[in-house]
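Tokens as discussed.
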């Protein structure tokens, strides 16, 4: 596979590789802020030859998923998922568990579950944001890590694409809410529909303003 120019996006991975740590997983989550739908977390271990020589051309421009157009996120995700040398996992924590745990703990649970799927287990974890307690390997927490580490950026893309697809599916089940458009985030349209119709089964009932509305029966 042809490789492109080395990038600072791989500095953290290269530092770990220079210390003999070849399996460093980037960890990121998506969906902390929406009023509806699951949290998605992804863990990605990039191949050592990519870390040494640079990302392949198919991943040039990889960065925080929020900075990428949907079509480009989809292309990056398709390439990452098709490459047999990329170790990856994406998991969801559903609405009921979010309501039971609270969103912070649910996000941390999603991250731990994504890491647990990886086999062999990663030797080190590059985590987007603040440190996460009780992870099964040493971690480096990077604020804004999805724009600083290729592994975290890859995890950001996979989690975002997976969650967006899930919300698109929900849009077909509950088309009045506009989930395909806002993915459950509290846009003005989403709040207006919520006020008019009340929450549907995928709304997070522990979140304001969802908890302020009566639960109305809705046909799925």
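Sequence:
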């Amino acid at each position: 596979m042809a490789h492109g120019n080395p990038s600072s996006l791989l500095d953290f991975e290269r530092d770990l590789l220079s210390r003999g740590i070849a399996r460093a997983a980037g960890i990121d989550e998506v969906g902390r802020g929406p009023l509806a739908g699951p949290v998605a977390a992804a863990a990605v271990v990039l191949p050592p030859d990519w870390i040494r020589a640079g990302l392949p051309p198919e991943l040039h421009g990889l960065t925080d998923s929020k900075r990428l157009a949907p079509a480009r996120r989809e292309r990056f995700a398709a390439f990452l998922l098709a490459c047999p040398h990329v170790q990856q996992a994406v998991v969801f924590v559903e609405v009921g568990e979010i309501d039971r745990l609270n969103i912070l703990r649910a996000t941390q649970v999603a991250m731990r579950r994504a890491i647990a799927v990886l086999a062999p287990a990663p030797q080190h974890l590059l985590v987007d944001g603040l440190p996460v307690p009780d992870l099964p390997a040493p971690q480096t927490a990077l604020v804004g890590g999805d724009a600083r580490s290729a592994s975290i950026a890859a995890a950001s893309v996979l989690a975002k694409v997976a969650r967006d697809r899930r919300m698109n599916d929900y849009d077909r089940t509950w088309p009045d809410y506009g989930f395909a458009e806002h993915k459950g985030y509290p846009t003005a349209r989403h709040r207006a529909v919520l006020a008019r119709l009340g929450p549907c089964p995928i709304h997070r009932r522990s979140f304001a303003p969802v908890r302020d509305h009566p639960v109305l029966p809705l046909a799925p």
